Amino acid sequence: MKTEKKKSEKKGEEEMSFLEHLEELRKRIIICVVGIFAGFIVCYAFSKELFNILMTPLLIIMPANQKLVFTNPIQPFMVYLKVALLMGTFVASPLILFQLWRFIAPGLYKHERRYSFIFLALSIIFFIGGACFGYFVLLPVSFKFLFAYASGLIPMITINEALSLISWLLFGLGICFELPVFLLLMAKIGLISLSTLTKNRKYALLLIFVIAAVVTPTPDIFTQCTLAIPLYFLYEISIILVKVFANKTAAKVRG
């Protein structure tokens, strides 16, 4: 009876044909593309200001008489386009995540759909939190360490290189900070359990330091710890979230 009840809770994965799924996917992708394009247009109008904001962690560390350079005439134009696209995508990210939820929601059970908005909100909060952590904490620390080794040398950093490094770090950290959402999702679909997370803390810590070594631009242990400590803190938050949300749902299903 419980199995039949669960099956009846589903809205439409069985009811929709393969072509209907493709049409629904096409619709969601078009909405995402329109959202990114709208964000791109708005951000392009302020691309110079946004570029200066993105470069601030680097510019405050550089010597006062030094500026960023470019190596060919078209580079500033292309860099401002990249800034507009990156920030437009960032601005449209809540819409993208919402469209993803709308696409997968028909295939979820009722009790799973209730938690989907929580996943959506947490995804946005942790991604923005990761980007802010990178901008306000990790980038200044990393640049200060790197410039300490360049005393007596003249920096000639191109605007393209600076944008690539900073955007990679900010988006990379945003994704890294999705760790609690990822682990909670894995627990909800039954791929990991609360006991697995609690028993394997030491392996998680090791993996976190490996990730920190890959993401951070400097090889020093201090900068790696600057990222690894918050990531491990997020791992502990993941355990709490799994205990609160995933375990409760599992208990209800068993009951």
Counted beta strands: 0
Task: State the end-to-end CA separation.
Answer: 13 Å
Strand content: under 5%
Radius of gyration: 22 Å
- Please write the string of helix (H) and strand (E) elements: HHHHHHHHHH
> What's the overall geometry?
flat
Helix content: over 70%
Helical element count? 10
- Output mean pLDDT: 85
Structural class: mainly alpha
Q: Unreliable runs, pLDDT <50, ≥5 residues?
A: 1-14, 250-255
What's the main sheet like? none
Write up this protein.
- It is a single chain.
- Helix content is 79%, strand content 0%.
- The chain is mostly helical.
- Residues 1-14 and 250-255 have low confidence and may be disordered.
- The protein has helices spanning 2-9, 18-45, 47-59, 75-104, 110-148, 159-176, 179-188, 194-199, 201-215, 221-254.
- The chain contains 10 helices and no strands.
